[in-house]
Amino acid sequence: MQIGFIVLGFLLASAFLILLLRVPFVKRTEKDRWATLVDVPTLGGIALLLSSIIFILDVNLYLIYGAMLIFISGLMDDIVVYPVSIKLIFQMVAAINLAYAKFGLFGDPFLVVIVFLFALTLINSMNFIDNMNGIAAITAANAFLAFSYLYNNDVLLLGVGACIAFLIPNIKGKIFMGDCGSTLLGYTLAWLVVSQPKIVWHQSLVIVAFPLIDIAYVVINRTLHGRKPWVGGTDHLNHVIARKIGEDYTVVVVFLLTMLLGLTGFLLSITNG
User: Fold this and answer.
1) CA 150, 12, 29 angle in degrees (round to 5)?
2) Hey, which of 38, 89, 162, 211 would disulfide with 52, CB 3.0 to 4.6 Å?
3) In the chain, pLDDT over 70 holds for what percent of residues?
4) Around Cβ 102, how many Cβ atoms within 10 Å?
């Protein structure tokens, strides 16, 4: 039955991707983030939303509201560039929705702030690592797989199948997930981390450690060099690795690393009963 959810997510995403690849809208890759400049469709996030995310988050109306805010703000940025401040406002409102979905109106203020800040961080960290073909999708696929076992939730495997389907054209540079996809994945993974009791949050954090470590590294590095942290660049961890071994092998390294982190998070849950 588990493989059935992966296959279903794969088939649904593939069907949407076939349609999206025919959409004439394309966006030129940014020189400060990508090694090559090409015109590529950037609406792959639509396939991820319709094939898996909408089902994964179908547990709370406030989560859906937040997801749609994230998706719309990302889609707007994919179509026409607008100020980062406006995009951040959308993300903040979505993070508030996520915190409310977790704690309700009278939750512990300290935990509400922690969840709010964490959601903002993971939303943007997934967007940050979407700078090389395959990296964001592989990270999300391994995270969904780990969470499905950690929480015994087969529906999360739809996300695995959808990410695999997206990887096929994405690895070849035929389509990008865009901000609407990367930020939506970050929002979804943030919910999967905080949706469980606090006692297992540290296990969930291990599963999403790669994008969190990357954003910490990038922000600190750029700040120390007098650069704005939110301005793109080829100074991410995967770029550092790629300069040593090339992009193809870097994708393999990230795959193995995120799979190891997912397995570690799952084993921690077993160890702690």
Assistant:
1) 90
2) 162
3) 91
4) 20
Amino acid at 166: F
The amino acid present at 191, given as its one-letter code, is W
Contact 212, 144 (CB under 8 A): no
pLDDT tens for each residue of 91-136: 999 999 898 888 887 778 888 999 999 999 999 999 999 988 899 9
Amino acid at 1: M
Question: Which of 27-36, 61-70, 163-172, 184-193 comes out lowest in average pLDDT?
Answer: 27-36
Question: How far is the C-alpha of 70 from the C-alpha of 180, rounded, in Å?
Answer: 7
CB under 8 A, 24+ apart: contacts of 57-60:
57/188, 57/191, 60/101
Name the residue type at position 49: L
Q: By the 8 A CB rule, do 145 and 262 touch?
A: yes
What's residue 122's pLDDT? Answer: 97
Assess whether pLDDT exceeds 70 at residue 66: yes
DSSP state of 53: I
Helical ranges in the chain per DSSP H: 2-20, 44-48, 54-56, 61-79, 84-103, 109-129, 135-150, 157-171, 178-194, 201-207, 209-224, 237-245, 247-271
Least confident of 157-171, 228-242, 249-263: 228-242
As a whole number of angstroms, the distance between CA 97 and CA 63 comes to 6
d(CA 61, CA 53): 14
Count Cα atoms within 13 angstroms, Cβ side, for 238.
31
Q: Tens digit of pLDDT for each residue in 133-175?
A: 899 999 999 999 999 988 888 999 999 999 999 999 998 888 8
